[in-house]
Amino acid sequence: MYLLKNLIKITVITICFFCIACKSESQSEPEIEQIEKKLPNEEELTPSEPSEEVNGQEKTPDNVIYDYSGKTPPIAPEGMEWELVDELTDEFNVSFDTDKWSKSLWNYGVPVQMKAENSGVNDGNLWIKATLAEGEERWFQSSRIMSKTQINYPMYTVSRIKGAHISAYNTFWLNNGNISNRNEIDVIENNSNPSCDCQPDFPWQMNSQYFHVVDDDTKRNKGNFDNRKLSDDNPLKGVSWNEEYHTFGVWWKDATHIQFYLDGEPAGSVVSARDFTRDLNIIWDLWTVDADWLGGLAKKEHLQDNTMNTMKVDWIHTYQLVEKK
Fold first, then answer.
1. Phi-psi region of 70 (alpha: psi -120 to 50; beta: other; left: phi over 0)
2. Which DSSP letter does residue 34 get?
3. CA 288 to CA 310: how far, in whole Å?
4. Which structural domains are found in the chain, ordered by start?
5. Counting Cβ atoms within 10 Å, is residue 78 exposed (0-12), middle (13-18) or buried (19+)?
6. CB within 8 A of 116, min separation 6: which ones?
7. Helix (H) or strand (E) holding 22
8. Dist. CA 185–CA 187, nearest whole Å
9. How much is the pTM?
């Protein structure tokens, strides 16, 4: 009997150890490279309730006169007013303000390599330049600028940007920095010079969207807008992203409603399938990947041409919606 009891104990312990080992192996952390290859435009779109808009634009009173310079925030709701957030506002006229901005250099997938020296402030612009590292696996050298201050709704931010004329996403976006659990608003992911011959509208298409990710479960939808649909008297109607500076804005209204703006006009919107709950940083970057949804991989010869390889940001103005004093 004593031997039988001990044999049973040994058998139970062995089975338990085997089960624990199996569970540990199945729940192992993903490799860094696997995380890196989770490209953001591959998830399916999430249907959501329609917002109050006409032809992709927010309903506005007939007597509204748009400020095509983009410097005037949207009309505040009754009893509210816009208050400038200095920590997220910059004219970029002097130097890189390290109290407001940092260079966040985590990488996208190959061939992107983020480097601090590929961004800075000069001649009244924040700039991000794409350069070539010939012979390297990560030959697309670029950079990323991120705010040190985070913000939450209700808010409005607008930035005046001239895109690099290469097959890459020139971006202006908000994110909390966790790929598996994040709230993200992409104001723009613009590419004026797609290399794939598969995105004919990209030189004028403002690619805007949201992501809401909880434990890698993604909700997402687009609010794209074509600048050829701007008002007839808007001087930037039909002007591609690299030819002139454009202003790109977002009014993050509440936990689910997000309205985008282009050159002073409402320009597409999204309604999130889940409530946004996180404070977000503001980010600009420039990156490429060999995928049709981005417009195709950047051409190496374009990275050696200083007339087309640089994204320029003239200014950013950010506001919080507060009760009128």
1. left
2. H
3. 13
4. 78-323 (2.60.120.200)
5. exposed
6. 103, 105, 143
7. helix 2-26
8. 6
9. 0.85
Q: How far apart are CA 168 and CA 285, in angstroms?
A: 10
Other Cβ atoms within 10 Å of 83 Cβ, number: 16
Q: Which two structure tokens, joined as six digits, stand for 92?
A: 């970029």
Quickly tell me which residue has 């298409």 as its tokens.
Answer: 205
Cα separation, 206 vs 204, whole angstroms:
7
- What SS3 state is found at 280? strand
| DSSP helix/strand/coil, 229 | helix
How does pLDDT run across 239-285, given as a tens digit for each residue?
Answer: 999 999 999 999 999 999 999 999 999 999 999 999 999 999 999 99
For residue 172, what are its two tokens?
A: 């202006």
Local structure of 163: helix, strand or coil = coil
Q: What is the dihedral of CA 122, 128, 134, 138, to 10 degrees?
A: 150
CA 73, distance to chain mean position in Å, is: 20
With beta carbons less than 8 A apart as the criterion, state whether 321 and 80 touch.
Answer: yes
Residue located via tokens 């949201």 = 210
Distance CA 234, CA 243 (A): 15
Q: So which residues are the catalytic ones?
A: 184, 189
Give the chain's largest Cα–Cα span: 96
pLDDT mean over 172-191: 96
Average pLDDT over residues 87-102: 98
* DSSP at 154: S
How far is C-alpha 247 from the chain's CA centre? 15
Report percent pLDDT > 70 for the chain.
82
